[in-house]
């Protein structure tokens, strides 16, 4: 497993690349140049339901290919309670959520 800082950086790069792909396909408007502060579902960000599904699946696939780690974001994010911090608010919150999933494989169905 990668060091924590390296893991977070690698995950953030994957998230940003996947968001760029979804944006290029016209399914969202997310300003990735803002890095971690880029809004996904928070104010100023926009992604439609097809784009969101595509984003989560693409991130799952890229994490598995690039890091050799299997996670299941599409099931676990739908289980977030209203009192939870929304992992889809910004690139930073999504990155932190994924790193937490990797570090606690049972949280996101990883193996």
UniProtKB/TrEMBL annotation:
Upper taxonomic lineage: Bacteria, Bacillati, Cyanobacteriota, Cyanophyceae, Nostocales
Gene3D superfamilies listed in its UniProt record: ACP-like
Source superkingdom: Bacteria
Protein name: Acyl carrier protein
């Amino acid at each position: 497993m990668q060091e924590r800082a390296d893991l977070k950086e690698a995950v953030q790069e994957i998230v940003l690349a996947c968001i760029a792909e979804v944006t290029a396909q016209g399914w969202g408007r997310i300003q990735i140049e803002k890095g971690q502060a880029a809004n996904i579902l928070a104010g100023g960000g926009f992604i439609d339901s097809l784009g969101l599904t595509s984003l989560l699946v693409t991130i799952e696939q890229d994490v598995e290919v690039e890091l050799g780690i299997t996670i299941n974001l599409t099931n676990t994010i739908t289980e977030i309670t209203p009192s939870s911090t929304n992992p889809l608010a910004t690139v930073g919150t999504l990155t932190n959520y994924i790193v937490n999933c990797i570090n606690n494989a049972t949280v996101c169905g990883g193996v």
